[in-house]
Amino acid sequence: MRVHRTAAIVLRQLYLIRGSLSRVLPLFAWVTVDMVLWGFITKYLDMLTHGFNFVQILLGAVLLWDFFVRVMQGVTIAFFEDVWSRNFLNIFASPLSLWEYLAGLIITGIGTSSVGLLVMLAVATMVFGLSFFIYGLLLLPFLLVLFMFGMALGIFASGVVLRFGPASEWFIWPVPALISPFVGVFYPISTLPQWMQYFSYVLPPTYVFEGMRAILAGGEVRSGALLWSGFLAVLYVLGACRFFVSIYKHAVRTGLITRYSAETLA
Question: Could you tell me which of 65, 67, 61 has the C-alpha nearest to residue 27?
Fold first, then answer.
């Protein structure tokens, strides 16, 4: 793997973002709207309950979940840029390897999600008084698990679009919303029916949000559960990479990759 080739993918994304206001605004605009909306909702709930701190429980959960969504979208949108511009085939006409390309997508996802995370932290802490010191050093593994799972879903989603064509991207956008009921973003997993809980226990974010609520309730996070969530996240990343590689090889072998050529526009 050549570092400068991966850097070229990242640099291309930076040029795209720098040259378009419509690409810059989504980095912080929608997360700001989410923080403001949920921030005032939690403030209102605090007024109704007189003492129960909804800011820490709900707004903290929204922030972590938005971070996961931004990671996934950071990877997929970087891939979609090549799909929309019919540039995917041109990229692989170069000496660039598939792993170098994936590394570029992941680094791009790190950059874009970091911008969103910093904006969310600034709004949540300065405007609504949300403090993450209560989580201590556990905030780092929480973010790491969410990042790895978001990265895995982003790579998997890119593979789906590569296999079924650009129109299939509309199957990708609802994925976070479909997952959210199973991972208990706003409520304990114990409130779910038993059949839903089976799915919850194989999704890494479940253990992040359960651990977050345990800390806020004055309890402790089980180290075994956190390690298990990290192990699951790594498995998802490896599985997603394997899936993308197999789809790419299939597309090259069968000629499906030509659908991403600029010549097909004629």
Answer: 67
Q: Is the pLDDT of residue 199 over 90?
A: yes
pLDDT winner (highest mean) among 120-134, 164-178, 235-249:
235-249
**Cα distance between residue 255 and residue 52, in whole Å:** 59
Token pair 């605004």 is found at: 25
Nearest C-alpha neighbor of 88 from the set 103, 75, 101: 101
Tens digits of per-residue pLDDT, 82-110? 888 777 777 777 788 888 888 988 898 88
Residue among 83, 63, 260 at smallest CA distance from 157: 83
Domain coordinates of the chain in residue numbers? 3-265
Q: What is the pTM of this model?
A: 0.88
C-alpha 122/C-alpha 148 separation (Å) is: 23
Neighbours of 172 (CB within 10 A): 19
Separation CA 162–CA 19 (nearest Å):
26
155-158: list long-range contacts, CB under 8 Å, 24+ apart.
Answer: 155/75, 155/102, 155/105, 155/106, 155/237, 155/240, 155/241, 155/243, 155/244, 156/239, 156/240, 156/243, 156/244, 157/72, 157/75, 157/76, 158/75, 158/76, 158/79, 158/105, 158/244
**pLDDT at residue number 265:** 41
The answer to whether 144 touches 206, Cβ cutoff 8 Å, is no
Q: Is residue 176 within 8 Å of residue 72, measured between CB atoms? A: yes
